[in-house]
Amino acid sequence: MEQQIKQEILQLYKQLKEEDNQKENRLEKWRNLEPESAEFISIIIRTQQSKNVLELGTSNGFSTLWFADALNNSKGKLTSIEIEEHRTELARNYLTNFKLIDNVELLTMDAKDFLVQATPIYDIIFLDAERKHYVEYWIYLKKLLNKKGSLLIVDNVISHQNDVKEFVALIGNDKDYIVSTANIGAGILLVTKQ
């Protein structure tokens, strides 16, 4: 990522974090991915030369900016799913302003509805949605991890350990998958098929 763009995106993060600090209701907050986590995932995208990335939980598009920039290198495509229309539109505005919209498809829909019909074309799947649904998502995520080398990345596995405990155990008990937790940002779970 170019240094100037990175500084502008980090300034945006600071502004959004300040907005979050003024809100009491968790669901009204932006709940953005931490910059160190976003940068880590963007490095994986670049290293892997990803062609197709799926993001479940766009929010306002902060993480989407990082992923889209990383995908410019490989001419890859990002599909990002958000259930709230106003958040999708805000993400579209940020991506347009940063000139990163060209390789991004933003969809406003329920993540489960998308997963039910999705096909296993994704190199990376980033999961940062409502954690209470993760267990029911697993059957569909497994189907998408059938592409050789596919990687599932889940945010908040340290900061919200209790919320994802059942989901992490479910994956850990599945002998077909290798699981590792990276102590970056709020904690990132990395999952790939054996």
TrEMBL record:
GO terms, biological process: methylation
Domain of life of the organism encoding this protein: Bacteria
Coiled coil: 2-33
InterPro entries recorded: SAM-dependent_MTases_sf, SAM_O-MeTrfase
Stored SUPFAM superfamilies: S-adenosyl-L-methionine-dependent methyltransferases (SSF53335)
MF terms in GO: O-methyltransferase activity
Alphabetic keyword roster: Coiled coil, Methyltransferase, S-adenosyl-L-methionine, Transferase
PROSITE patterns found in the cross-reference section: SAM_OMT_I (PS51682)
Statement: the UniProt record of this protein carries the keyword Transferase: yes
Name this protein carries in UniProt: Putative O-methyltransferase YrrM
Organism of provenance: Arcicella aurantiaca
Lineage, uppermost ranks: Bacteria, Pseudomonadati, Bacteroidota, Cytophagia, Cytophagales
